[in-house]
Amino acid sequence: MPFLGQDWRSPGDQWVRTKEGWERLKLWRIKVFENLNESILARLIRLAVLNFEGENGNDQYTHQPRIHFIKTLSRERKVVTTLSESFILLDMTGAVKDIRRFNYVKKILHVLLSKSLVNMSGTSQKYIFSILDEMVNQVVKTKNNTKAMSDLLDCATNSLNDGRYSHIGCTTLWNKHFQAVQRMKNKLNGCKTFMRKEDGKPTISDLPEDCIRCILERLADHKDVFHTGMTKSSIFHITESQLIWKHMSFFHFTDRQLLTFVPDQLGVDEDFINWKHIYRKCFLRYGRKEIYADTLAICLHCDNIFWKSIGHPCISKEEPAARILQPEAFLKLFHF
């Protein structure tokens, strides 16, 4: 049924009633496509791409999720970009299926669950837990990021316990969140990892030593370096060398941060510097560097928020320019 707002300048919007309550029709249509079976969705996309190629002769058509961020309001424009709307239009549910964007979405949910869950609307809460459920399904399917997913579910449980009597919304919805998180934990606990069978395909140990070193030195958590070294003696030799810890120190910390602990050893030959010790000192003081394979960005010309790896159709004819948005900076745009 059409809904007409009180402001005469706004024609209103169409709403549809679902099991979870009233939702905007244009957003509900997007959710319908997100919940389609993967095989059906793949077939629809394949048919659409073939149709597009037949009409335009172009085989590089790609869907580009984006949202126009409105900085200020005016008397003529009474539109506010909401967080729940951005989750749908930026396809956060689909983003967790991409290994490059998984950690970025995980960080956004971790910040919201730990700091802002009790102050969020019921609609935004439902979107967060639906994304959380899709993340669990992806982890169970790929057997990746199980520890990180378990920590995120523990964070959700703690936030639900802390906000039991101070949250926004009804108690029934809050209890549904409890049940959903418990169901996700049971699903994650039932996920078992098996040793890879000999299939003749190359493994990380088959790569040259320089390639293995380049991969390990860019890991966000140094514990993963230790765990990788425990898998094979040849990789253990790489993880214990001073060269990899030197590269990790320069990759994760700035020169100014390194000079805090290096100046006493400037007169010493560089080969005799204990880079593993310096990395440990820098890590204890400055913490972990946040590394994401793909991030959100905001265009400086048209104010569209988009995924950097996918891009967006900009209306400006000038050279594209965008500002990278860290998870905290993205949430700050919506006052979280």
UniProtKB/TrEMBL annotation:
InterPro entries: F-box-like_dom_sf (IPR036047), FBX25/32 (IPR040394)
Main location: nucleus
Protein's UniProt keywords contain Nucleus: yes
Cited SUPFAM superfamilies: F-box domain
Biological pathway: Protein modification; protein ubiquitination
UniProt record, GO biological process: protein ubiquitination
Alphabetized UniProt keyword annotations: Nucleus, Ubl conjugation pathway
Protein's cellular compartments: Nucleus
CC per GO annotation: cytoplasm; nucleus; SCF ubiquitin ligase complex
KW Nucleus (keyword) present: yes
Protein name stated in the entry: FBXO25_32
Species of origin: Mytilus coruscus (Sea mussel)
